[in-house]
Amino acid sequence: MAIDKIEKRIIFSSMAVMGLFVFSLLYAMKKYKSNVPECLPYDKAYAEPKVNKLDDKTYQVFSVASMWQFQPAEIYIPVGSEVDFYVTSKDVVHGFNIAQKNVNMMAVYGSINKTTVKFDKPGVYDIVCHEYCGVGHQNMHAQVYVNYPDAK
Amino acid sequence: MQVSKTFKRIIFLELSIPVALLIIGIYHGLMQTIYRAGVLQDTSFAKLGYYQGLTLHGVINAIVLTTFFAVAFGHATMTYYLKQEPNKKLMWFSFALMLGGTLMASWAMLAGKASVLYTFYPPLKAHPLFYIGTALLIVGSWVPFFNWAVMYTQWKKVHAETKTPLAVIGTLINFTIWFVCTLAVAYEVLVLLVPWSLGWTTTVNVALARTLFWFFGHALVYFWLLPAYIMFYTILPKVAGGKLYSDLAGRMALFLFLLFSVPVGVHHQYSDPSITQGVKFFQGMLTYGVTIPSFITAFTLAASLEYAGRQRGAKGLFGWMKKLPWFDENNFLFSYFICGLILFIFGGVTGIINASYSLNTVVHNTAWLPGHFHMTVAGPVFLAIVGMSLYLYSGMSGKPVFMRKIVTIVPYLWMMGMLVFSFGMSWGGLRGEPRRTNLGISYLNPKSELFRSDWVPTTTLAMMGGIVMFTAGMLFIIAFFGTILRKRKAAGSLEIPVSEAYHDEKRVPLFDQFKPWIIAMIIILVLAYTPALINVNKNSGPGAPRFNIDNPTPLASDNK
User: Do A94 and A140 contact (CB within 8 A), yes or no?
Assistant: First the structure.
């Protein structure tokens, strides 16, 4: 099979570029511990909204999305905490996005989504529903308060 | 070549009906940018709701237009290259199914009974006719594929040692991908959703439905793209004044699409629950595989364009760019192709970012995503579709193109509008601006406590781009229907520009047959999707009842 010399080069460079991308991806995952959400089997224990304090710096949040609110709507945690977010939905598909922390999950009926994130800086972090979930979608949001002056 | 009256009539209908529907589709595109920028702070305008309009925009532009065109262009290509017209009864049958399906789904959407967006994720429930209509549209597009397959087999019997024309290979590959991927959505719609929406079954496994949808949903984008690729490989070099740099490269790229177009859908579900990280990573790597044919295409097309420029007397390293027929109104197809390709550079790069596994968590479901895919489906795909629709219509009807100058400028206007729009959307997405959201009511309403001032510049840019694109789109629609209303000047025949190959390699049997490729396709597909389907069945809890878009209380089911 005769392939043009220049073309051969370009096919190899295409593959080399993609190889570089794969390497960067793996490198970033290792260095920054960035990953996609974890996969858990369904358990109805997560369908009860709550904030669990495991120790001073470790929290669990069971966030339940429904038309058109997140429960709990306000989450208070101290600065430096590591938080496991467990997300599910009571009805249609919702989104769970904390853009400032790159937390990005879908809330799905009958499924449990999970990710872990550390809040190093004080402030108010918006949780925005970013999946269409009916007529009230644009109002669906919640907040994480990290050592905010008003924090309880 | 001369074609029969019936053939012409069906093609004209298949080209003009979606262009007419584009009036609704493009109007709702503009409206969304206006709502999102906070200029309109309402749930509806002119009695059509935001999410209803969003559904119409997605279904008409991305499913109806693309499917009708793929069928019409496939008919034209197969007929032109194999010198044989498809069976007329089957052509009518397919057209009737597609039209009937489109009418059903359009009714459901316009009546406000299916504002569930074009992804129709359950447990949001749409009217059963929305699902059935979509299914009919798809089934209607299968019919010609079987007919073409028979035409090809017959042709191949006589021409066993002749290289099958690239456009024929491309069309058959495209519809093979389409047939395979639509099996999943047909199952989702007919087995899971229709009985559930009618209340015959009580619940649906949402994670499974999403996985089946994206089995279809990503291959769908290649079904949009491949007609444009066929035009770029087989027509663009000719209209640029040159030759296709390499014929074999085109074949390789197309067959690689057959392998990698379908088993990559889980990259739309990186943020989903119930699917393991391993499955997601594996399909992410397969997605990188699909970039290889795109890189091959980028190189081959750039080389073909450079060759064309040099044939036109260009000198130096970049002189060929100046010599290309940018604004040649007697050759308007070129402007549609080139603008699409320029947009596709950005569309491709942003696409690789989305595919990049954990990097996707930065952008998933934000405005970045529509920013990306408007530079693919509303870039090369849309421009190639409308440019070619007008070209085919004018040629086959013998009617000269109306407003030729404006027709030549439209793609440039569209491209500029698109660049501004997509820049605004992508920038907003990086600031967390959600997609598919009527921002004007909350986040872009200064009176709301949710107001986000940092999304004002991004949504304003998107609106400005939207206004420019709307203008370009309407100018095109006026030119298209203006052409239809003109008087016939010539007999009218089916003519498609054919590019010769600069490197016309000898026939390589491997790249002139389907069997080994289809077997490889199925193997990769089974490897990629068996674990995903096991995951969503094993990790899912109870199924979901039906929900209307305006009420958190589920609908009662007949079985209770």
Answer: yes
Which tokens in the block code for residue B214?
Answer: 């994206």
C-beta of residue A152 within 8 angstroms of C-beta of residue A76: yes
Told to judge if B373 belongs to the known catalytic residues of this protein, a careful annotator would answer: yes
What's this model's pTM, rounded to 2 decimal places?
0.95
pLDDT-derived band at B150 (thresholds 50, 70, 90) equals very high
B432/A66 Cβ within 8 A: no
Looking at chain A, which residue has its C-alpha nearest residue B117?
A132
The tokens describing B7, both together, are 């053939």
Output b/e per residue, B68-78; b: 16+ Cβ within 10 A: bbbbbbbbbbb
Q: 3-class DSSP state for residue B554?
A: coil
Give the tokens for residue B502.
Answer: 């600069």
The angle subtended at Cα B265 by Cα B264 and Cα B270, nearest 5°, is 100
Spatial CA neighbour of A118 closest among A62, A70, A79: A79
B120, B213, B222, B344: the active-site residue: B222
Question: Each residue of B39-84: pLDDT tens digit?
Answer: 999 999 999 999 999 999 999 999 999 999 999 999 999 999 999 9
Interface subset of A 5-34, CB within 8 angstroms of B: 6-7, 10-11, 14-15, 17-18, 21-22, 25, 28-29, 34
> Is the separation of the CB atoms in A93 and B195 below 8 Å?
no
Domain-wise residue ranges, chain A: 1-34, 38-146
Active-site annotation holds for B75: no
- pLDDT tens across B329-378, in order? 999 999 999 999 999 999 999 999 999 998 999 999 999 999 999 999 99
The domains located in chain B, with CATH, are: 5-539 (1.20.210.10)
Q: Strand A123-128 vs strand A141-146: parallel, antiparallel, or unpaired?
A: antiparallel
- Asked if residues B136 and B99 have their Cβ atoms less than 8 Å apart, the reply is no
Which CATH number is A38-146's, of 1.10.10.10, 3.40.50.150, 2.120.10.30, 2.60.40.420?
A: 2.60.40.420
Please tell me the predicted confidence (pLDDT) of residue B209. 96
Cis peptide before B123 (omega within 30 of 0): yes
Highest-pLDDT range among A26-30, B168-172, B491-495: B168-172
Given CB atoms, is A129 within the 8 Å cutoff of chain B? yes
Question: Alpha helix (H) ranges present in B49-205?
Answer: 50-58, 65-82, 88-110, 128-158, 166-187, 194-197
ipTM exceeding 0.90, yes/no = yes
